[in-house]
Amino acid sequence: MKLTEYYGRRVLVDRPDWQAKQPPAPIQTLETITVGDRKIECRRCGQKTPKKIAALPNGEFYCPRCINLGRVATLNKFYHVPEPNQFVVKEPVLTWQGQLSPLQQEAAEEVATGMKKHQHQLLWAVTGAGKTEMMFRGIAAALRRGERLAVASPRVDVCLELYPRLQAAFANTTMVLLHGRQELPYRYAQLTICTTHQLLRFYHAFDNLIIDEVDAFPYAANAALLYATGQAVKEKGGCLYLTATPGPSLLRQVRQKELAVSYLPLRYHGHLLPEVRLRLTPRWRRTLDQKRLPANLVAELRRTLAAGHRFLFFVPHVRDLPGIAGALETVGFERRTFTTVHAADPERLAKVQGMRDGRYDFLVTTTIMERGVTFPEIDVFVLGADDPVFSSSALVQIAGRAGRARSRPDGRVIFWLGCPCRRVREAARQIRFMNQKGRALQR
Amino acid sequence: MNCLLCNAPLAYRLTIPDLVLLRPIQPPVLCQRCRKQFERIDSATACPGCGRPKNGRRLCPECQRWHQHYGWHLRHTALYTYNEAMRDFMRRYKFQGDYRLRQVFQGELSRQVQTLAADLVIPIPVTATTMATRGFNQVLGFLGTEEESGLLVHRAGEKVAQSHKTRRQRLHTPQPFELTNPVAVRGKRVLLVDDVYTTGRTLYHAASLIHAAGGDEIISLSLAR
To answer: How far is B195 from chain A (nearest CA, A)?
Structure first.
């Protein structure tokens, strides 16, 4: 293994290897697990597990919590080399030619200043505000300072979309993309784009860490990932959270002034968010069970296609997908013009790419498509928006898929729901609230 | 408690016998869906030699070849087919090293061991290298014990695991084991236990040592075939 691969990381080493010989000079050997009285604590994911569950024979222990990233056991050690920031900065760092609107400019300045001071900060921008582009200035300045950076997201789709954009924007910077489904080996790079799970492999590596879509599952409710974030940044490193729908814990940190915040209530093209229209269909679940779709929904889909627009069609559950696909075929939508996609779909990435390339008129999907993915000029429909799988922040995100292109800033967003519901109301209220703020700025 | 394989929450309802009989309660460790993925082998129609499913109680060609080679053949019982679910289970249990998963088949396997009523149960050992990296012997885990019998051991210098070889390489593997105390198996009904029966090579190596040491009857058992 090359020495650079240990920089700012903790690499698992098996007992026969670390017992055989002392590692060469800069490599430090670190413990993997703290064994307490009744519990063990994993030093990688920070989770505690009762000894009884974590026990291996012969008084050894392992951490069952983060086992998917390779088992951490008392049989292992970590090899680690403190991050040396060994980068050659090649000008121009920023190869992005685009222009920011004055509002974006302002937010970008704030972000860059915060990153320079290695602050912990939140950028609260509506969906489609151009968050990625707003980070560019801050990232460029940090790269020029020779800092090591990471852009992480809980969603692999988000990472896959970010990577080519960042590659284009920082063409002279070494970059690596890491996520659980890829076979590509790790390599040392100044800018890392990864899923938040991959942060568990790093140790005091980054001078600035950017977490996109910080409120998304599974990051928000996962103690191991929060711990990973803390471990991955250097002790004096900065952290920038990006989101359109901050959850209660972030909002609390903002209120308690632990987190600096910048707002951006307008989209990059200066238009407001499309507001949600609601349609009541009290029996959508029963219609669906009979393998049919509400008539006004079918009519709406037809109208949309006739007008030459493409769309995303959200449904609550994976198990609803085959029934709906069948029902759509029955009423005359051709199978090759659309497809269904869900989280465990083996062809998920290919299908999303297919939609991006225009091979499909629409995707029928579950909440996995709620964020991060941008298809221009689309409309958004949700069947069963009152189902509990759709949290209010998920609904805001879903609604935010529409109207993202300058060429068509006002896509339509329609929710079909069985009965009025608090989450839907809350989502509609949040959108109106941001639009109110936005209108004040438009003037 | 959650399903050990898919992490879905598991509900366990106490039954009247649980309450009345004062016996230890054994809550399930797998959800119904995961449990159903595993396919039991019906021993009534399996090959009596290797436990290959649906062979109509006849000796399969592979076992006939073994018989030609040794002049005797194993009498093997396998509980499950080595299907996609079992492959994935083994990957997580053995190669990822999730020792908790031993509970999934522990009960079934130890019950089967009891039924087979052998004088001596010998689990197939793992190499010292495997023990130092994996930290456990997967067969002992299934049997619910941590203690090696120490009777059957790997010869020094044995390196490559069977699972890393092709079928051809497996069949040409030289004897990897030795018996530390051959007298102990003389005249005994011996049960060999392994996790997966693939080519039979491992079990035949172990069995031939016991055969040579004068074992009276040799039977074998594996979780999968």
So the answer is: 18
